[in-house]
Write a sequence for this structure.
């Protein structure tokens, strides 16, 4: 593993950066993914994996012999094993003979598996994510406008064949670069976030980025610290299902704050 140096900035931002880099560099993390497979409707083999696999829509199934080396919770799979997760969820299911972790995930109502190795060349060479210098001007006060409980929105994802329905929490309005801005606020697993485009996308940053923020106060006031903007997992691996920004979630001025394109 390469040594990662945290950029200069306020102590709380440096702590945020340390936690972020540690998450990315962890074993079996987002830099060690090896595959992604939608599970077929009928029993079939998956190249490079033992056994046969399928999903009936509700549950995932694998059929293997003990000699195939698949384990669940430390016990060999000898016969048919089933597992399931809720929409947007993911959970460790199996371990392969060579130590890879097979997780099950559900996106858009479909079940898929994804494999994580303990480490990878990408992880071993990781030196951190490039960031813009911390800029206090990008700590912006906004106003949160809630939607009715249960509101949903449908968005595209990193995978062209997949669209996802997310909880739509409301809209946040603020001023950036002297211009009014409005973004849809969603929740993917927990907490409020905005996925957004801006003019830095492509040359300086990935195709879109994400900012998470704390709950509003009793007056709807929120603090948007764009220095904490992050690259979503698609910037590091193709084996992901990251939601794209909802239609219109574009900041009209360049957001030169937070993470840049990974090296």
């Amino acid at each position: 593993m390469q040594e990662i140096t945290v950029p200069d900035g306020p102590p709380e931002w440096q702590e945020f950066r340390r936690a972020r880099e540690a998450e990315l560099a962890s074993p079996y993390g987002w830099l060690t993914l090896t595959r992604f497979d939608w599970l077929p409707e009928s029993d079939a083999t998956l190249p490079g994996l033992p056994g046969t696999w399928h999903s009936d829509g509700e549950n995932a199934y694998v059929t293997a012999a003990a000699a195939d080396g698949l384990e669940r919770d430390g016990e060999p799979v000898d016969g048919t094993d089933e597992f399931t997760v809720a929409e947007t969820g993911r959970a460790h299911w199996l371990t392969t003979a060579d130590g890879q972790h097979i997780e099950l995930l559900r996106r858009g109502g479909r079940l898929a598996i994804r494999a994580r190795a303990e480490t990878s060349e990408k992880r071993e060479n990781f030196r951190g994510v490039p960031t813009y210098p911390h800029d206090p001007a990008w700590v912006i006060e906004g106003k949160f406008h809630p939607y009715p409980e249960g509101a949903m929105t449908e968005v595209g994802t990193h995978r062209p064949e997949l669209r996802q329905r997310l909880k739509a929490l409301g809209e946040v309005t603020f001023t950036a670069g002297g211009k009014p801005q409005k973004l849809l606020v969603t929740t993917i697993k927990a907490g409020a976030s905005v996925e957004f485009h801006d003019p830095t996308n492509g040359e300086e940053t990935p195709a879109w980025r994400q900012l998470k923020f704390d709950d509003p106060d009793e007056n709807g006031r929120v603090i948007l610290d764009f220095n904490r903007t992050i690259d979503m997992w698609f910037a590091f691996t193709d084996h992901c299902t990251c939601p794209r920004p909802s239609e219109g979630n574009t900041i009209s001025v360049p957001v030169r704050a937070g993470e840049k394109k990974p090296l």
About this structure: Residues 104 and 113 are 5 Å apart (CA to CA). The chain has two domains: 33-117, 129-263. Residues 129-263 form one domain.
